[in-house]
């Protein structure tokens, strides 16, 4: 029996810092790669461009091309996953011999993620009775609360086969599941065994997606933890490989070839399928993996580059790095703005006020972007950064070695 799931829009996610460093770490690994803040910024920019232009189209060739480009913004979630796997695995591996390593890792993750996540849920839960009087954007969220509190949003998507308010938290669920399990792998296995686990997870995720797509479960192929583990595992694989005998420089030639081949394959796939829609069967099976390979290759090339190049200059732009800093809040709040504005029929009201579809779209995107960035900025300065200061009580002394 084929169970078809409703397809409307995907929703994405955030990763955080790598700060490896004491005197024993190799110079190439014992630093915070600021260029990766720009990578995170690009990822959230892709997500915002997708969400805020969803359903829009244009009459002119320029506008049609612009909206066509923004439809691939969902791939920002793939970039987030690969980046997160890379950074988190590096942190775990470099502290694998530290005392209290499990406690320190879980507490530092909790301080980064839980305040904003549960703070947002608490505020919405408290305001919902009042909000429901003037907007229906959160209609149907009542049955989702148990799943939201327990990081199980993607399981509810599997059961219902459709999106619901705050279902964009599915990627946070995937990330949290990774945080819970992955320390057990890296802390208990040696590097080579962990590499084998990464390769197995990449293969398993690919096979699981094929099975889900064949059953018509396209949303689950996009959101289930096991079906999306290849991006995280590929990032983890990179972190483990560069800590091997041959180091980072040895895989740079492979990364160059990987970026070229996967990039070319993605272009050909987009031409064949007339775009890269997240729910397209070939994109879900082959395309996701190609995207992960391309992003993994990009990360290698960026962290291995010691000279200033156009690529590193782009990812070191202050604008992108600032977006990277606030990416978690931006991700959480951008879809909430959409829920509120759609519930208030804001796009239609703006269109009636301006009497111009083009102006309406510009105003809507400007309002969405400004509101989301403002909320993320306030969230960072009033809430998040104060909890991050508590990380000092859960520091591990990283020891980077070659094994």
UniProtKB/TrEMBL annotation:
GO CC annotations, alphabetized: membrane
Residue stretches making up the Acyltransferase domain: 36-379
Signal peptide: none
Any GO BP: lipopolysaccharide biosynthetic process
InterPro entries: Acyl_transf_3_dom (IPR002656), Acyltransferase_3 (IPR050879)
Keyword Acyltransferase tagged: yes
Keyword Acyltransferase: yes
Single Gene Ontology MF annotation: acyltransferase activity, transferring groups other than amino-acyl groups
Record-linked Pfam families: Acyl_transf_3
TM segment ranges: 33-53, 65-93, 113-132, 194-213, 219-242, 254-274, 286-309, 330-350, 362-383
UniProt entry keywords in alphabetical sequence: Acyltransferase, Membrane, Transferase, Transmembrane, Transmembrane helix
Alphabetical list of PANTHER family matching this protein: ACETYLTRANSFERASE, ACYL_TRANSF_3 DOMAIN-CONTAINING PROTEIN
Protein name (record): Putative acyltransferase
């Amino acid at each position: 029996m084929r169970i078809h799931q409703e397809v409307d829009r995907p929703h994405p996610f955030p990763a955080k810092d790598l700060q490896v460093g004491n005197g024993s770490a190799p110079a190439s690994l014992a630093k915070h790669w600021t260029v990766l803040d720009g990578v995170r910024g690009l990822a959230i920019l892709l997500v915002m461009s997708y969400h805020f232009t969803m359903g829009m189209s244009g009459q002119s060739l320029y506008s049609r091309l612009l909206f066509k480009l923004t439809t691939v913004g969902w791939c920002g979630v793939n970039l987030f996953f690969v980046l997160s796997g890379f950074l988190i695995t590096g942190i775990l591996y470099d502290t694998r011999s530290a005392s209290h390593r499990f406690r320190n890792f879980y507490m530092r993750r909790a301080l980064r993620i839980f305040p904003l996540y549960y703070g947002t849920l608490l505020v919405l839960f408290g305001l919902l009775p009042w909000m429901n009087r003037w907007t229906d954007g959160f209609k149907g969220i009542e049955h989702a609360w148990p799943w939201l509190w327990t990081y199980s949003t993607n399981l509810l998507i599997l059961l219902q086969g459709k999106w619901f308010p705050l279902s964009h938290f599915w990627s946070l669920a995937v990330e949290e599941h990774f945080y819970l399990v992955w320390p057990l792998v890296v802390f208990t296995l040696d590097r080579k065994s962990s590499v084998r686990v990464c390769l197995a997870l990449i293969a398993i995720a690919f096979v699981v997606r094929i099975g889900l797509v064949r059953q018509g479960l396209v949303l689950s192929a996009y959101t289930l933890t096991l079906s999306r583990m290849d991006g995280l595992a590929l990032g983890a694989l990179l972190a483990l490989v560069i800590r091997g005998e041959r180091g980072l420089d040895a895989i740079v030639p492979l990364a160059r070839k990987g970026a070229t081949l996967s990039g070319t394959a993605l272009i050909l796939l987009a031409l064949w399928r007339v775009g890269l829609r997240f729910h397209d069967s070939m994109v879900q099976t082959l395309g996701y993996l190609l995207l992960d390979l391309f992003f993994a290759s990009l990360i290698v090339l960026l962290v291995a580059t010691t000279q200033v190049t156009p690529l590193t200059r782009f990812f070191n732009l202050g604008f992108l790095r600032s977006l990277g800093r606030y990416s978690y809040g931006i991700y959480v709040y951008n879809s909430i703005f959409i829920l509120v504005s759609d519930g208030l029929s804001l796009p239609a009201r703006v269109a009636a006020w301006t009497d111009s579809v083009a102006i309406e779209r510009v105003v809507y995107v400007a309002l969405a972007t400004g509101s989301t960035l403002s909320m993320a900025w306030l969230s960072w300065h009033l809430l998040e950064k104060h909890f991050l200061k508590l990380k000092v009580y859960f520091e591990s002394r990283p020891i980077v070695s070659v094994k």
